[in-house]
Batch of 2 targets.
Target 1
Amino acid sequence: MNKGELVDTVAAKTNITKKQADEVISAFLEVVTEAVANGEKVTLIGFGSFERRKRSEREGLNPKTKEKITIPATRVPAFSAGKRFREKVAP
């Protein structure tokens, strides 16, 4: 499902226009993205949580030369599925 299909489905389930659904979904995504970028954890009970995690520096291999390289530490977005979501996906 892409964003357009999500907008259509939300609009149909909530009896609002597609434009309103798109605005709500876009605002939600923006708020979650900004919060996680600022180091906050966003938790939606039953669905899951979004957070920023640290990835440590590690050693890797250059696929062309097979030479060992150091991959620098970084921060990455992460999602952890909530209990109800996990149970629905994998009963």
Target 2
Amino acid sequence: MDLSKIKTLIDFVGRSQVTELAVSENETTVRIFRNRPGRAAFPDIGVGGQNLSEVRQTEAAKPQAGLVVTAPVFGILHTSPAPGDPPFVAAGDHVVEGQTLFIIEAMKVFNTVTSPCAGRILRLTDVNGSDVAAGDMLAEIE
């Protein structure tokens, strides 16, 4: 799908009452979301018996003692470099600044999420393979 078509779709969503649009063409899918006042920006997706908004609320309610690493973009969270590989990090692991913690896949682009500091992983998200929104808590480093 070329850039002009994507821009046209974005303009359409911006001018209409549509809050979510997914268009596929030649093995490429573009998903466009728009936040409406008073409504969640992203649909709830089931995660371990809870919907994603419940998971986010639970994570937000937990006291935080360390530095929180959040998702920089909306996409699919991957905790390991490839299916079947061990995760990049586990709770309790010591990390160094710049170490890869996660990969977020957004429109076939793989965004690496790295540790902003050295420390020990206190908590990790458990939504591997599911959608995350920009700003969602992924890890906490002490």
